[in-house]
Amino acid sequence: MSDPRPPRRYLDNAATTWPKPEPVRSAWERAARVVGAAAGRGGHRAAVEADAIRRRARERAAAILGGADPARVALPAGATLALNMAIHGLVRPGDHVIATAADHNATLRPLEHLRRRGLIGLTIAPCDGTGLVDPAGIAAAWRPATRLVVCAHASNVTGALQDAPAIAALVHARGGMLLLDAAQSLAQVEPARSVVAWEADVVVAAAHKWLHGMAGAAILWAREGVEIEPLIQGGTGSASDSLEMPAAFADRLEAGTPDLPALAALEAACDWLEAHSVRAVHARCHDLAIACVDGLRQVRSARVFAAGGCGPPIVSFTLEGYDPAELAAILEQAAGVQARSGFHCAACVHDFIGTQAGGTVRLAFGPFNTAADVEAVVATVGRIAT
């Protein structure tokens, strides 16, 4: 009996990319099935191979960052953990921190937690109706005690790409540090593969998003001279005869047994991006997003939120008369389109783009999507809007 459902059209790549490239799946499975050992935790053959996988993953991550020093790259178990590590490891009691309204809850919630405990002051700089942050808003929020500015490089709701060099210049001129959440930008936006060009002090990205790896790994890079106090203490496989955490940057931030399959997948994903060109992958995804924006803007009752330009291929929209959750359900039922609806773990941006009632429907195009996916979205929305 045939399946009456429409074919699956996965457009939730901003949450996690799918499908994963075949080499990524194979590397993940091999690490789990064949290697199976803990990196840095033994001298037998499998443990040595596991450690080599972690070393290569670190080197590939450094290359994706634009030729960064691998010694300054840590590989925590996820971007939310990495962002918490950076925030808790950089701020001190009495510091003032500036975040932005376009930021993700992965940074806003730990900052709010510290503020509620009375440990830091916190100001959230505004964004405009597209999710773009004016550096002047950060300057206006500056205080004598300001130590850290936290900023999502690209909005996960509208795709707005912040001017990281301009923000960094402002922050550094005042003696502060910039933590850049690059979950929606690394390996996707221009300038591709150039963490130096962004001029941040600390950059974090998730392996399972635009890097096309698996969940269970993230990248945390800090420039030379920026030290992050470890949030978690424990075994690292190094300096095991001491009760103190090791001095080396990565060792201090990688307590606990690493997720070896995730690291193997990260290595393979970086290799896949190198082979297919970050620029070419971005261009393909970007073209699909632009086509979707153009089509949805022909529907009179639709409001489309998409920054365009060099940002990630994210398109958010609402449709008059429909709750975003209802609309997303209709898209999947009628056309097989799998989109995300709601507030997208971004607590503040909706107050500025006018979607407080229920958020948006968010589409995010990956390299395995096609023009047929765009046509399915536009045709379905156009049909139900009439």
Quick overview:
It is built from 13 helices and 13 strands. The protein is α/β, with parallel strands linked by helices and 386 residues long.
Descriptive labels:
386 residues; alpha/beta; Aspartate Aminotransferase, domain 1; Aspartate Aminotransferase, domain 2; 2 domains; 4-stranded antiparallel β-sheet
Structure overview:
With 386 residues, this protein is of the alpha/beta class. It has two domains: 9-20 and 277-385, Aspartate Aminotransferase, domain 1 (Alpha-Beta Complex), CATH 3.90.1150; 25-276, Aspartate Aminotransferase, domain 2 (3-Layer(aba) Sandwich), CATH 3.40.640. The protein has helices at residues 22-35, 45-64, 79-90, 105-116, 135-141, 164-173, 195-198, 249-252, 260-276, 278-296, 324-335, 349-353, 371-385, and strands at residues 9-10, 73-74, 96-100, 121-125, 146-152, 177-181, 202-206, 218-222, 302-305, 314-319, 337-338, 340-342, 360-364. Strands 2-8-7-6-5-3-4 form a seven-stranded mixed β-sheet, with helices on both faces. Strands 9-10-13-12 form a four-stranded antiparallel β-sheet, covered by helices on one side. Strands 1-11 form a two-stranded parallel sheet. Helix 1 packs antiparallel against helix 9, helix 2 (45-64) crosses helix 9 and helix 3 runs parallel beside helix 4. It is globular and about 70 Å long. The protein starts with 8 loop residues before the first strand and ends with a helix.
